[in-house]
Amino acid sequence: MNTRFAVAVHVLTLLQSQRGEPATSEWIAGSVNTNPALIRRLLSQLARAGLTQSRMGAGGGALLAKPAQDIDLAQVYRAVAEDAEVIPIHASPNPRCPVGRNIQAVLERRIDAAQRALEAELARTTIADLDKDIARRARR
Amino acid sequence: MNTRFAVAVHVLTLLQSQRGEPATSEWIAGSVNTNPALIRRLLSQLARAGLTQSRMGAGGGALLAKPAQDIDLAQVYRAVAEDAEVIPIHASPNPRCPVGRNIQAVLERRIDAAQRALEAELARTTIADLDKDIARRARR
DNA sequence: GACAAGTGTAACCGCAGTAGTTACAGAAAA
DNA sequence: TTTTCTGTAACTACTGCGGTTACACTTGTC
């Protein structure tokens, strides 16, 4: 997997910390320590998933598309991972071998269950939770 | 992630289906549909984790190092994934930003929990389970 | 209306990890 | 002693990723 999920969570938490003020991709890139174009690419992915929205033109920038407590990490994960699998299965085992013929189907069930468990755990945290965590940490 | 986990599970299930007969890397590669050297590379990783053992020389090959019901998929996952993270965190966010300074620590806790959930789910299945699944499927 | 400040997206680069492959030294059975 | 294996190093081709530049387009402001 790539670091897009972590960056996306970073960006969303940053937007929440702005409390409604639009954030420019350049400013966001400054906090993530990367390139504005890369942030815009990520933001358009998040916008497509209904997590953010952007205002174009001068004074524009990115905003959360819904309250932070309604955005959980599983949503972010799905928005960003798209169809990439956590644990991929190897292609084309030998169909003339009993194990080769059946291993994919048998293994897929277990991997799907594991991925569901991962997402269920992620779903327990929202952007609002992380915002609070960070506020608590920053206070000391 | 790569397909090594899936291939490892395939190989282990194959060894179990041999009921004690050593399997050569060439034969295994035939079922996986890949290269013997690649299988040997994987097998030495599994041997280091105590899941398989190999007999060298003529008539040699690979064997399970312990009963199939004592090998669960979480063990295989750890043997093969080594220190690769399911969900990596981006490096070097800006320490002068409150969010940038704290996001890694805050996010890491949640990702660790998610990974534990994934492994816990994987731990519920053993190689013996898969062997049975395949036997059941092959019977019809 | 012109300008400045933004977004969205395409195109490209270098790097790193992966699967695949060849080659060969060493071990062990026949 | 020959044959059949393993273990491992070395190399290649491919792919995906993060990073970067470039540019058309949108919008607020003077």
Overview of the structural elements:
The structure is a homodimer of 140-residue chains. Chain A is mainly alpha-helical and 140 residues long. Chain A has a domain at 4-86 and 126-139: Orthogonal Bundle (Arc Repressor Mutant, subunit A). Helices cover 59% and strands 6% of the residues of chain A. Chain A has helices spanning 4-17, 25-32, 36-48, 73-81, 98-122, 127-139; strands at residues 52-55, 61-64. Chain A has a two-stranded antiparallel sheet. In chain A, a hairpin with a 5-residue loop joins strand 1 and strand 2. In chain A, helix 1 (4-17) crosses helix 4 (73-81). The mean pLDDT of chain A is 96. The interface between A and B is large, with 57 and 56 residues. Chain B binds a DNA duplex (30 and 30 nucleotides) through residues 2-4, 22, 24-26, 34-38, 40-41, 43-44, 54-62, 90.
Question: What topology does this entry show?
Answer:
The structure is a homodimer of 140-residue chains.
Chain A: H1 4-17, H2 25-32, H3 36-48, E1 52-55, E2 61-64, H4 73-81, H5 98-122, H6 127-139
Antiparallel strand pairs in A: 1-2
Helix pairs in contact in A: 1-4, 1-6, 2-3
Chain B binds a DNA duplex (30 and 30 nucleotides) through helix 3.
